[in-house]
Amino acid sequence: MWIVRAADSGLKDTLARLHGIVAGIDAEDLHNHDHSDNVAHYAVAVGWALGFDPERLAKLQRAAFLHDIGKAGVATSILAKRGPLTEAETELMQGHSAAGAAVLEAAGLHEESRWVRAHHERADGRGYPDRLRGEEIPLEARIILVADSFEAMTSDRPYRRGMTIGDALDELRRCAGDHFDPLVVAAFAGLIEGGGMPVHAVRSEAAPATASARPPRRALAPRRRGRLDRGCQPVVGLRVGRAPPGG
Ligand SMILES: [Fe+2]
Ligand SMILES: [Fe+2]
Question: What spacing in Å lies between the alpha carbon of 100 and ligand 1's midpoint?
Answer without folding.
Answer: 9
